[in-house]
Amino acid sequence: MLATGLVVVLVSWSVGAFGPLIGGALAGLPMVLGPGFYFLAQQFPADYVQQAATYAVYSLSATQLFLLLIILCAPTLSPWRTLLCAVAGWAIAAFILSFMPIQPWLGLGLFIVVTAFSLRVSRRLAGMKGTSKAKAGWGLLVFRGTLAGLLVAVVTTGSSLLGPSLSGLIMAFPIGYTVVAVTIHQTLGAASLVATLRSALWGTGSLAGFCTTLALIFTQFHWLTALLLAAAVSIAITLLLVFRPWARRA
């Protein structure tokens, strides 16, 4: 719960402080999935967690479609209508993906294809201009972060009753992105939101790295070692994305 709140506060603040590119990259840190799988590992056998991680990889393809729908709808719809469209799209995609086989590499391949598609479709909005609204105060950010944390606690508790496939799909529901998107849309405007979420399309690769690594190695290592290795892969991807602009300028 606390981890999700920190993500929302950190990303919303970093967009205003450092720009949408870094904010979107930081949004991909596994500070929601990490604690979720930690608790699953405490309660279920390795095979269960491995299957849940595999379906979390599949769920991230639905997350990319969720982000794409927000990017496409934000310039013309209100924050809440935009979110409604995105959540509906995610639910349909997740339902279809729940029938996929337990194949982590297939999930990763699908994620790459969906990411490339989303980046291409949203490219026309990459240079979108708009009037920046006032930045959210810390009190508002903390309140929304706390709300996001409560949502994660509810989802994590409920998903453990649904079996590994639905557990993984629900665990990877973009709760953090949901609150971040509404916060940025309301406080910084659609232009900042579009730029941030286009960066988040890349940033979600960090989550894909985390879940894929976990799915591939969880049954071969001690659960804590597997979680730490998956987190290391995720952090490495995030650092690569954060420092990419400076690398290109060099």
TrEMBL record:
Keyword Transmembrane helix: yes
Keyword Transmembrane annotated: yes
Keywords for this protein: Membrane, Transmembrane, Transmembrane helix
Source superkingdom: Bacteria
Segments forming a coiled coil: none
Membrane-spanning ranges: 7-32, 52-73, 80-99, 105-121, 141-162, 168-188, 200-218, 224-243
Protein name: Uncharacterized protein
